[in-house]
C-alpha cells in the first residue's frame, strides 16, 4: 500500500467515523446510536439480581461484543484522526476510552462493569446525526440562555444554601435525634428535601414548633422556585430577541444586529430607505 | 323509502351526530357528554371491591345499556358518514369502536371491562360543543405554542435522561441493595422520582455520600424545572404577539402592532378608512 | 331620640363599620382583624386533644365572648346598612352570619364549633384596611390576569384530567390490589398525587412496568407544569402592558390606551406633536 | 507611637478588613471566606454522634482557634472603624458578634456551640470579594425585581393562607384522628405539605371524600405555583428592560431603547456624537 493510498484510506475512515454528511457516515452514526443504547440497556439489566442469575452468560457475551466493537472504533478514531493526541485528550476521546476500560477491568475487579453506563455520555456525540435538523440550533439557544442566566442563578443558589444551613441547624436544635434529625448534616439534607418540595417523608418533624418552621420552609420553597424560572424565561426571551435582531445587515457598513423596525443603521447612520 | 328520502335521512342524522350547529345537534352532544361521563364513572366505581360486591347487577345493567347506546351510535355514524371507511379508520372512529368492544369481550375475558375507561377519550370529541365559545381558539394558541416548543423540550428531555441514567447508576454503586437500590433500573426510577421532586420515600439514600448526591439531584431538579417553563412562556408570548401583530398593518408606513379597533396608524397618522 | 338623630347615628355607625377612611373606622377594622385572628386561633387550638383537656373552660369562654361580639357587630351591620336585605344576602353578609351560627349550634350538636374556622373568610373583608396602599391595585392586576388565563387553564385542566383517568386505569390493570392500587378511583388518586409531584409514597408501584409508566407520568407532570406557568406569565405581562398603555390620553378625542411611543391618536388621528 | 502613625495604622487596618480593592484586602477576604466555611463545616460535623465520640478534642481545638481568630478580627473592626458604635449595632456588626459568643457560652451552657452556624451569615459579607465581577449587579437586578413583586406576592400568600386554614379544617372534620389528622393545626400543616407539593406521606387521607378533597388541593397547588412564577418573570423582565432603556435616549427624537454601542439613532438617524 502506497503512502497516498494509505492517506486516502485514513481520510475515508475519518469521513465515515467523525462526520455525518455522507450516507455511509450517517449509517455509521445510526448504527453507533443503536449499539450505545443496547449496550447501556445490557449494563442496566445486568444489575437486576434475578436476570443476572439466569442470563449471566448472555450478558457477558453481549458486553464483550460491544466492548470489542467500541475498542476497534476507538483505535480507528486514533488512526484516522489528523491530530491523534488532540483527540485522545479531548472530552469525547476520554469518554470513548472510559466506555471500554471497565469491561477489561472487570476481569480483575468485581462489579466494575457497572461503570460502563458512562457509555451513555457517548450519546452526546451521536447527537450529531440531528445536525441537519433544527435541534442543534434550539440546543444553542437553550445553552446560550442558560449561560447568560448562570451568574443570577449562582447568586440565587448562594442565598438558598445559606438559608438551608441556618434552617437545617435550627431544625436539629428544635427536633433533635428522636424525630430522626440525628445531626446537623442530616437536618440540612432534610431541609433540602423539603425546600425543593421533594418530601420523602423518611424524616419528618414531630413537634409543633418543628412543623411550623417546616411549613415556613415549604411555602418559601414553593415561592422561590419562581426565581430561577423567571430568570431563565427572561434570558430565553432576550436570546431569541437578539437572534431576531441579527437578521438585518446594514448595506453600507455591514454591521449586524438591527431591530426590525429600524430606519437608520445605529452604527454608521445610513438610511435604510435609500436602499429599498 | 325512495333513494332521495334515504339520502335526506342520512344527511339529517349526519347533521345531528357529527355537527353541533343545530339545536338538536347540540342536544345530542350534551346527552353524549353526560352518557360518557356516567359510563366512565360506572366503570371506575365497579373496580371498588365493596361496591362491586353489593351492586354488581346494577353495574352490569348500566354497562350494557351504555354499550348498546354507543353501539347504535357507532353504526349510525358509519351509516350517515359520506365516506364510512375514512371514518372507521380515523382516530375518533377507532376510539368509538374501542369504547364498545370491551363490554362484548367481557363475556369471554374476565376484567376486560376496565378497558372501557378508553371512553374518556370520547370526551375530546364532545369538546366540539364548546366550538362556539373561545375555548377552541385558546386550545389552538396553546397547542401551537407547545408544538413550537417541542424541539427545545426534546433537547431538554434528552439531556435530563442522560443525567438520570448516569446519576441512577452512581446511586446504585454508592447505596447498593441494602438501602433499596436493588438494581440500576430501580435506581434510575428513584432518580426520576427525586429529580421531578415527586419523592415517594419508598426508597431513600442512607449513606452520607448518597445523601449528598441526592441533595445535588434535588437542587438540580428544582432548578431545571425552570427550563421547560421558560421555553413554554416565551413560545406562548410569541404566539400571542404574532396572533395580534398579523391582524393589522398600516398600509402607508407598514408599521405593525395596531389595536384591533384603531382608526388611525399610531405611527404616521394614516386613516385606515381610506384603505378599506 | 328624634328621627334625624337616629338617622345621623345610623350613618355614624355605617361609617365606622363599613368604611375605613376615618380614624375610628380604621381602628374598628384593626380591632376586627385582631378579633378574627384570635378567634380562628382559639378554634384551631381547641381541636388539639391535650389542650382541650386542660383548657376547655378557657376555650369555651373565649369562644362565647368572640361570638357575642360578632353577633352584636352583625346586628349593627343590619341596622346601619341602608339596604339591610341586600347586605344579608350578599357574600359577606352570609359569611358574617355563618361566623356566629356554629357557636349557638354547638349547644345542641357536638363538634359543630369547628365550623367556626369559616371566620377566616372574614379576613377578606378586613383586607379593606389596606385599601389606601397599593395592595388592592396589585390584587386587581393579579385577578384580572387570572381571569384572562381562565379559558386556557380550563382547556389545560380538561386535558390533564383525561390523562389522569386513562393512566389511573392503566396503573390499576398493571399493578392491581397487591401494590395498593385497590380500585380505579384509588389509582386515579395516586396518578394525581404523582402528576402534581406531591408523591406521598403511601401507594407506590412495585412492578417494573408500573414503575416505567410512573416515570413517564412524573416526567410529564414535571414538564406540563410549564403550561399554566407560561399562561399566567404571558397574561400578567399583557395586563401590565395594557395598564401602561392607559396612562396616555388623546387631548383631542380623550381616548385612552395609547402606546408610549405613539405619534398619532389611533382613534381620531390627532397628531400628538401639535399638543406638546 | 505618635497620633499620626496610629491614625495611619487604623486606616491601613480599615483598608485591609473592610475593603477588598487592595491585594492585601482581597487576600484577607479570601482567607476569611475559607475560615468561615471551615468553621461552619466543623460545627456541622461535630453534631454527628460517631464523629463527636472519636474526634471531640479535635473539634474543640478547631472551634477555639476559629473563635479566637474571629474575636481578634471583631476587635480590629471596632478599633479601625471610624464610627465604632455604628459598626457594632449594624446588621453585620451583630452577626460578627453572634459568631463568636456561642463558643464562650458553651463553657457554661451545653450544646450552645451549635448556634455557631450563624457564622454562615458572615458569608454575605464576604460576597464583597465578587464586587468587581458582575455578581453584585445581578444580585441587585434580582433583589429589585423581588422587591417590586413583594406586594403581589403578599396578596397571593394571603389568599393561599386563607385557603389552607379552611381546607385544613375541612380535612380535620372529614378524616379525623384515626387517619392522623389529630387536630386542626396538624391538618393545616398537612394541607401546606400537600399544597406546596412536598408530600411527606407521614399523614395521608384514607376516606374517599378526603382523597377527593386532597386531589383538589394538589391540582390547585400544582396550578397556583404559576402565580408567583409569573409575577417574578414579569418583574424581572421589566427590571431588565428598564436597566437597558434608561441608559440611552436619542436627544433628537427622544426614542428609547438604543444599544449601548450605537453611534446613530436607529429611528431618526441623528448622530449621537453631535451631542456629547
Automatic annotation (TrEMBL), chains A, B, C, D:
The keyword Transmembrane applies. Residues 26-242 form the Ion transport domain. It is found in: Membrane. Pfam families: Ion_trans (PF00520). Its main location: membrane. Keywords: Ion channel, Ion transport, Membrane, Potassium, Potassium channel, Potassium transport, Transmembrane, Transmembrane helix, Transport. It is a multi-pass membrane protein. The chain crosses the membrane at residues 27-49, 55-76, 88-107, 151-174, 212-234. InterPro entries: Ion_trans_dom, VG_K_chnl. PANTHER family: POTASSIUM VOLTAGE-GATED CHANNEL PROTEIN SHAB, VOLTAGE-GATED POTASSIUM CHANNEL. This is Ion transporter.
Amino acid at each position: 500500500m502506497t503512502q497516498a493510498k494509505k492517506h486516502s484510506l485514513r481520510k475515508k475512515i475519518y469521513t465515515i467515523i467523525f462526520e455525518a454528511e455522507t450516507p455511509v457516515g450517517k449509517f455509521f452514526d445510526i448504527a453507533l446510536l443503536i449499539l450505545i443504547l443496547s449496550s447501556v440497556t445490557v449494563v442496566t439489566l445486568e444489575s437486576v439480581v434475578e436476570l443476572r442469575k439466569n442470563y449471566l452468560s448472555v450478558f457477558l457475551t453481549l458486553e464483550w461484543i460491544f466492548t470489542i466493537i467500541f475498542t476497534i472504533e476507538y483505535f480507528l478514531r486514533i488512526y484516522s484522526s489528523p491530530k491523534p493526541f488532540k483527540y485522545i485528550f479531548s472530552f469525547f476521546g476520554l469518554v470513548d476510552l472510559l466506555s471500554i476500560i471497565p469491561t477489561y477491568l472487570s476481569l480483575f475487579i468485581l462489579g466494575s462493569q457497572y461503570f460502563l453506563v458512562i457509555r451513555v455520555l457517548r450519546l452526546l456525540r451521536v447527537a450529531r446525526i440531528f445536525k441537519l435538523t433544527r435541534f442543534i440550533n434550539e440546543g444553542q439557544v437553550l445553552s446560550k440562555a442558560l449561560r447568560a442566566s448562570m451568574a443570577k442563578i449562582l447568586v440565587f443558589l448562594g442565598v438558598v444554601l445559606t438559608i438551608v444551613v441556618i434552617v437545617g441547624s435550627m431544625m436539629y436544635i428544635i427536633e433533635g435525634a428522636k424525630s430522626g434529625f440525628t445531626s446537623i448534616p442530616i437536618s440540612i439534607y432534610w431541609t433540602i428535601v423539603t425546600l425543593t418540595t421533594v418530601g420523602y417523608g423518611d424524616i419528618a418533624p414531630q413537634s409543633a414548633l418543628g412543623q411550623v418552621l417546616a411549613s415556613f420552609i415549604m411555602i418559601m420553597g414553593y415561592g422561590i422556585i419562581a426565581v430561577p424560572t423567571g430568570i431563565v424565561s427572561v434570558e430565553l426571551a432576550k436570546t431569541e430577541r437578539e437572534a431576531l435582531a441579527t437578521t438585518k445587515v446594514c448595506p453600507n457598513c455591514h454591521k449586524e444586529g438591527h431591530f426590525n423596525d429600524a430606519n437608520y443603521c445605529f452604527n454608521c447612520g445610513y438610511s435604510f430607505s435609500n436602499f429599498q
